Amino acid sequence: MPFVELNVVQESDREILGIDLGTTYSLVALWRDGRPTILRPRGRPDGRIPSAVSFPADGGPLVGWTARDRAATDPGSTLLSVKRFMGRGLEDSRDDLASVPFPVSATPNGVIQFDVRGRRWTPQELSALILAEVWRTASTALGKDAPRRAVITVPAYFDDAQRQATRDAARIAGLDVARIVNEPTAASLAYGLDQRRSGLVAVYDFGGGTFDVSILSIEGGVFRVLATAGDTHLGGDDLDRELVALALEEARPPAELAGDPAFLQGLRLAAERCKLELTLRPRAELRAASPERRFTWKREIAREEFEERIHPLVQRTLDCCTRALADADVTVDRIDEVVLVGGSTRIPAVRAAVERFFRRKPHQELNPDEVVALGAAVQAHVLGGGTRDLLLLDVTPLSLGLETMGGAVSKIIVRNSPVPTQATETFTTYADDQTGIDFHVVQGERELAQDCRTLGRFKLKGIPPMPAGMPRVAVRFALDADGILTVTAREESTGAEASIDVQPMNGLDDDEVERMLRESFEHARADFERSRAANLKVELGTMLRAVEKNLPPTRARLDRESLADLEQAVEGARRAQAGDDVHALQSARDVLEHAGQPLAALLMDEVARSALQGRKLSEV
Amino acid sequence: MVCESCGELVDAGSSPTPFAVFGLEPSFALDPALLRARLLELARRVHPDFFGGETARRRELAEQASAQLNAAHQLLADEVRRADWLVTDLGGPRESEERAMPAEFLQEVLEWNEAIEEARESQPGSAERARLDPLGAGLDEERALRMREIAEKLSPLPARRSPALAETRKVLNAVRYLDRARREIRELRLALPSG
After folding, report:
1. Are the C-beta atoms of A566 and A574 separated by less than 8 Å?
2. List of domains in chain A
3. Which range marks the domain in which residue B152 is found?
4. Is B52 within 8 Å of A478 when comparing Cβ atoms?
5. A280-294, A459-473, A500-514: the lowest-pLDDT one
6. What is the pLDDT of residue B194?
7. Chain B, nearest residue to A222 by Cα
8. Do B38 and B111 belong to one domain?
9. Cα torsion through A571, A577, A578, A581, rounded to 10
10. What number is the ipTM of this complex?
11. pTM, full prediction
12. Cα-based torsion angle of the residue sequence A67, A70, A75, A77 in order, rounded to the nearest 10 degrees
């Protein structure tokens, strides 16, 4: 008799979240009822979660809106735009570090660390806090635990180190990364899905911290990226910085104020507000103030003035568009559609510039803040086995190669190669009897290795002594669908082998990620208990108020035993309320609920009794 | 990489030829539309996106098959790389073994290199830059001519180790020079900050 194995897979097991981990805001979406849907907790029509982390002196990190609100009132303990530090070293980040209110240092491998009252946080851990908040938001919206698997988007122009940092952040947050997807590509999915388009599409993605442009060909449900270009340090933050610079030039604050991160952080937020207002109105006010130092400066900014200041930055985005078109080998008149993504595309001058460049009106049917998360949910749906009608074929934004003699770069995988991909190149020795070769893996477009980003170094040993030029060392680069690189080297006559999972400079190794993961779980448990304690206290308070209000007028009618129980329960509840012990709070709540039932019953007269049957004390 | 009868993923080993990946007989002439259609069709069958819930082994095979597919497509879609691969596969000289170019070619190379250098040292909008336009057009024409020459030499494919392969290699060397110059001209005309 054939043995039939029932394999019941619940829908929820295959569900995968789509997360847009943005520089200023993050969003989460899920495929529901045949389409991608932004997950918004009830009563919060704005699904955005600020990518902000705050460390109040009296407690553990706050994330999201509470942190964002504190950025204004307590700039000295709040970190914004953490994404700009991902996979970066101190040297890369000087400008961004100016408004960081904490001391910074770096690990031996160059990972930035923020020293918050003695505890050091890497950008990966801070991003993990944001991702955990994103997951909690998704769970709240769904009313149950959200899936732990996720598609996470990154700027298309992110390099290997930045992609790995993102993947590590997700691991630390306890998420399983189903795929890293490029933001503009995700956006094209969200658009292409509704419209069933085919043709050439340009996605112009000007976000909070980064700029990307991708040229795609859409054909029969296959979204094929032809070329991508961008700048991972060109976004809304940089537009704000133009206004900050203007304020500093004109306000001339005393030197100690101009170097004060808290003052700069406050000014940065004021600049952002001014920028947002200038999108709606022709004029807006810019303020720089420090009440402690009795310093105030303000001035009205005209939209034209702002546009003039940001013009060079907008021009840089258009240069990237020119580059992407050239790499895709298409002329601008062949582009069928232009899609705008990212908050910075709300700026009228940016829209106008894009329209002039591509000579057509860009699409704006979808909210530019949400389109990336929606696209991530589409890709998550594909990865979860939900459809085979769509396929995304993406490319690697930057060339990958090895340093050769004389410091030049031999490119093994050129930029805009489709991923996954692999390539092998053969090298040899330059000295007689050389038994080892050092490899320096780099990423970037420049001719010299020193001008590219170092991804890692490794050594192939065990080459038998031979005359120079005789050994044949095959170096294989394999780039996976997430755009992450593995390199192996093999000497062909002996089979000597060396490989590295490229652990980039400014990256974490596996042990570090493991440790951070453990720490985050410990924190998560503590955080969870803290929040449960807080909720229980609120509930106890409501119940106690109900007793206080209703007991005096009815006390005479309550039997002695019930009265004694209730008074004892009230006292127990008050004691528990003074502490933070979750278990004590829980049992006090349960006891009070039980002891309150006779009172609740008494309060119901004969008429009300039937209507109120089964209701709790706190609801009466 | 995909079994033709059952559609199952098959380990094609570490290095199937690019033509084998696409199920094609080696030849220089190749219809780009056919190549693209085959790419999309094969990608739909082997892309790792469709193996999310499967065993690690099958996911790995899909990743490998996709990487081979993409690498093969990159090579076949580029007529210079395609010709280079055919010459080497038929036992002809590699680029490193035969560096010569057609005799009449050298003088031309020197002349256009000079024009490009002059343009590089001049401002955008200058007469030297303007001269890049006719030069670029001339090089495009010359390249088309050289590619036709290669197509003739490789169609039908010459016998293994035939002297025609060394001749083809020399023309390919010329095309590489042309392409380098055309790329430089393109960059100068784009006039973008390098990067």
Report:
1. no
2. 16-235+309-393 (3.30.420.40), 236-308 (3.90.640.10), 400-507 (2.60.34.10), 511-619 (1.20.1270.10)
3. 105-190
4. no
5. A500-514
6. 47
7. B40
8. no
9. 120
10. 0.88
11. 0.83
12. -50
